[in-house]
Amino acid sequence: MTEATLRTAIVTGAARGIGAAVAERLAADGLAVAVLDLDGDACKPVVARIEGAGGRALAVGADVSDEQAVERAVADVADELGAPTVVVNNAGVLRDNLLFKMSAADWDTVMNVHLRGSFLVSRAAQKYMTDAGWGRIVNLSSDSALGNRGQANYSAAKAGLQGFTKTLAIELGKFGVTVNAVAPGFIATDMTAGTAERVGLTFDELKAYASQNIPVQRVGEPADVAAAVSFFVREDSSFVNGQVLYVAGGPKA
User: Fold this and answer.
1) Using one digit for the tens of pLDDT, what is the confidence trace for 80-104?
2) pTM
3) 71 shares its domain with 53
4) Residue 154 annotated among the catalytic residues of the structure
5) Catalytic residue (one of 128, 154, 209, 246)
């Protein structure tokens, strides 16, 4: 990517895990990257790694569920790095529980971060994309969208993101903006390590158990997801729009 076509990306939930891997991959691909998370200071190590490798990055602290905070953050990115024409909506939280134990607050928190956050960031950034006549939005769904015990809130949010993706693809395609989703399976992150702790297993035990049900016989790594996001963001992926790609080591229905 030449200097004349340098793109700016916003990656939410990018202080660690999948988001950090995506931010670093896009920077390696030649994009300037806004590393956005709730705590801006937590993003600084990711920014330092990107800059250490010769890239451009900015740490941004914002609550993606806060409308005014999102508007300010996106405007700041435009001022500091350039018009954000790539958005990766990765920010997410877990509040797992069985339905009869799940509080309304746990439901609302998950919906606000995953769905409201993706809506607010996409809405704030789309004007830069339509003005440029080019853009890429990639939403992080999950194979939990197909249903997963104890995750009524998370599953509903991740399924909702697939509908959100397909609708934005229809609305924005004529402006040169593609919208796709990546739906990871089991990915080794701090979030899945927390799941192991909750179910009384070591992380290695949980990964070994999960691997038995994955055709490639291993769990995923954040870099696996980052590679899929990188494909959707590419200049030459412009005819791929409104798709959901499962990155799960095997087929998903």
Assistant:
1) 999 999 999 999 999 999 999 999 9
2) 0.96
3) yes
4) yes
5) 154
